[in-house]
Design brief:
Elements: H1 2-25, E1 34-52, E2 58-60, E3 64-76, E4 81-92, E5 97-108, E6 115-128, E7 133-151, E8 154-169, E9 172-186
C-alpha cells in the first residue's frame, strides 16, 4: 500500500511538471523580426557644469530637471537585437531649454520570451530650440532595464539611464550629467 501511494504521488508530480511546462511553452509567439516603433516618457535629475568661453573657467551649474518624449524607429533583426534612429523633445526645466535629439539607438534583450532584461544605448546630436543655442550638442545615454510583451506585437519597457549631454550657447558650454528613468511601449 505504501508503494502504491509513492507511485501515485510521483505520477501526480510528473503530470504537474509536464502541465506547467506545456503552459509556459504554449505562450503566444512574440514579434521577433521587423519594424518597431517605440515611444517613451523620460524624467530625470542631475547636475551641470558651465564653461565660460574664452576664460576656460568651469563652475557648477544649476541642478538639471529633465522631462522628455522620445520616439524610436527601429528594425528588430531577431528576438535579441534591434537598432534604429530616434528623435523627440527634451525639456530642461531648470534652464528653460528645449532640445530635439537625433540619435542612433540599439537594444539588446538577452532572453527570448515574454519578459527579458535589456541593455540599450543611444548616442547622437541635439538641436537647441531656444534663443541662446548656437550649434548642435551631443548626447550619450547607456540604459539598463526590463522589457515585457503584453501581446504578440506590443511590449512595455522600463529603463534606468545615465545621460551625458553637452550643448552650446552664445558664451557658454553646458555639460549635464543626469540619471533618468524611461517608461515606454514598442509596437
Amino acid at each position: 500500500m505504501k508503494n502504491l501511494n509513492y507511485i501515485v504521488l510521483i505520477t501526480c508530480l510528473a503530470f504537474n511538471a509536464l502541465a506547467q511546462d506545456t503552459i509556459v511553452n504554449s505562450s503566444p509567439s512574440f514579434k521577433s523580426k521587423g519594424y518597431v516603433l517605440g515611444m517613451d516618457f523620460q524624467a530625470g535629475v542631475g547636475n551641470a557644469e558651465v564653461e565660460f568661453k574664452g576664460t576656460g573657467q568651469v563652475v557648477p551649474g544649476p541642478t538639471e530637471n529633465l522631462f522628455a518624449l522620445n520616439i524610436q524607429n527601429a528594425y528588430r533583426f531577431n528576438s535579441l537585437f534591434q537598432a534604429g534612429i530616434g528623435t523627440g523633445l527634451k525639456v530642461y526645466a531648470s534652464n528653460n531649454q528645449l532640445t530635439a535629439p537625433f540619435t542612433l539607438d540599439a537594444m539588446f534583450t538577452p532572453l527570448k520570451g515574454r519578459v527579458s532584461p535589456l541593455l540599450a544605448f543611444s548616442a547622437g546630436k541635439t538641436l537647441g530650440l531656444y534663443e541662446r543655442s548656437t550649434k548642435m550638442g551631443t548626447v550619450v545615454s547607456p540604459q539598463v532595464g526590463v522589457r515585457t510583451f503584453v501581446s504578440p506585437t506590443t511590449a512595455l519597457y522600463f529603463t534606468l539611464n545615465y545621460e551625458w549631454h553637452r550643448y552650446f550657447e552664445t558664451n557658454l558650454t553646458n555639460t549635464s550629467n543626469l540619471i533618468t528613468f524611461r517608461v515606454g511601449a514598442q509596437f
